[in-house]
Amino acid sequence: MSEENTSKKIARTNFYEQIEKKSLTPLWEVMQNLVLPEPKSPCIPKIWKYDDIRKDILEAGDIISTEEAERRVLILENPGLLGTSRITRSLYAGMQLILPGETARNHRHTQTALRFVLEGSSAYTTVEGEKTTMHRGDFIITPPWGWHEHGNNGDQPTIWLDGLDIPIVQFLDTSFAEHYDKNVEQPLPKPEGDAIARYGSGLAPIDNFSASAASPIFNYPYSTTREALEKMKGNGELDVCHGLKMKYTNPLTGDYAMPTMAAFIQLLPSGFTGKKYCSTDSTVFVCVEGEGKTTLGDTEIHWTENDTFVIPSWVPHSHNSSNIDAVLFSFSDRAIQQKCGLWREKRYSN
Ligand code: GTQ
């Protein structure tokens, strides 16, 4: 190093020490890590095979009760985000188990939750005074600050995937949570099915309704969703990257069903070979039906029913189904990205 450079370096080091005491730091030393030319997520592509983790989820039922745990959940933690309870930088995901006869007490929090049911048909969730039975493939939401509890009146365990915006709420320092009176179930002023009849039948109240942050429909039953996909399949063009992909919407606004998270369902017809694609929203996928693979460069993720996998932001990937139709559920933070004018996608020509 020249004499001039050495003295420059010493002067700078001294300067940094001087300003550090005043809680000041130089931008020029960190700028390239703060303002990236394109996304570079610490989130890593990863699959959790249901066959592999199911026994661990059930074993959690032997070692802890819902009274002790409040929610008996195994968090799907991204290996690139160890110790953070995150599946992507902005999202949390976990596998929740509720055994016959159990309840998971009523509480509410500012975090928005979604449930995607993987197994069992005898559990219920109660959201803001209405109960709904959980069936495989149902997409269920809990709005921010909505009271909710779960239970299982049947004789089979029920397992679902939870998706929450916990890291977003953490980042914004806006977490509030409280319990309902201990061990008292919430009152049920509304009969089961009221929300879907009132808001999900092509009807809406003519007045006295307030469009809140989340959809007033809180269970989007898979039977309805699947029938719609089957009807649409073969009518009109398939997207070359996504096959037939639809979003779950709030019927009062046409927006996503939740304020922060977007959720999707897509059908890849048998033998579908999707084109390469990437988007800024790291996405969690669940295979609902069929099997196939998602290719990311040299990596192939092979998925079958109930497997959960994550594709990080801005990583090019393509989906392929096998010789049967495949259905994928997915969710991401696209809803909040789009509200902030941040969301981008890229389609590749090959
Ligand atoms: O079911 O209310 O996976 O509060 C994490 C936090 C589920 C729930 C989770 C929760 C819940």
Please explain how this structure is put together.
This protein is an alpha+beta fold and 350 residues long. It has one domain: Jelly Rolls (Sandwich), CATH 2.60.120.10. The strands form five sheets. A six-stranded antiparallel beta sheet has the order 1-19-16-21-14-13. Strands 2-3-10-5-8-12 form a six-stranded antiparallel beta sheet. It has a five-stranded antiparallel beta sheet with strand order 7-6-9-4-11, with no helix packed on it. Strand 6 and strand 7 form a beta hairpin. The longest helix has 18 residues. It is globular. The model has no long low-confidence stretch (mean pLDDT 97). The site of 2,5-dihydroxybenzoic acid (GTQ) has 9 residues, from strand 3 and strand 10.
Write a concise keyword list for the protein shown above.
single chain, 350 residues, alpha+beta, Jelly Rolls, six-stranded antiparallel beta sheet, 22 strands, globular, binds 2,5-dihydroxybenzoic acid
Topology:
Blueprint: H1 3-20, H2 31-34, E1 46-48, H3 50-63, H4 66-69, E2 73-75, E3 92-98, E4 103-109, E5 113-119, E6 123-127, E7 130-133, E8 139-142, E9 148-152, E10 158-164, H5 166-172, E11 177-179, H6 194-199, E12 219-220, H7 222-232, E13 244-247, E14 262-268, E15 277-279, E16 283-289, E17 291-296, E18 299-304, E19 308-311, E20 318-321, E21 326-332, H8 334-339, E22 345-347
Antiparallel strand pairs: 1-19, 2-3, 3-10, 4-9, 4-11, 5-8, 5-10, 6-7, 6-9, 8-12, 13-14, 14-21, 15-22, 16-19, 16-21, 17-18, 17-20
The chain binds 2,5-dihydroxybenzoic acid (GTQ).
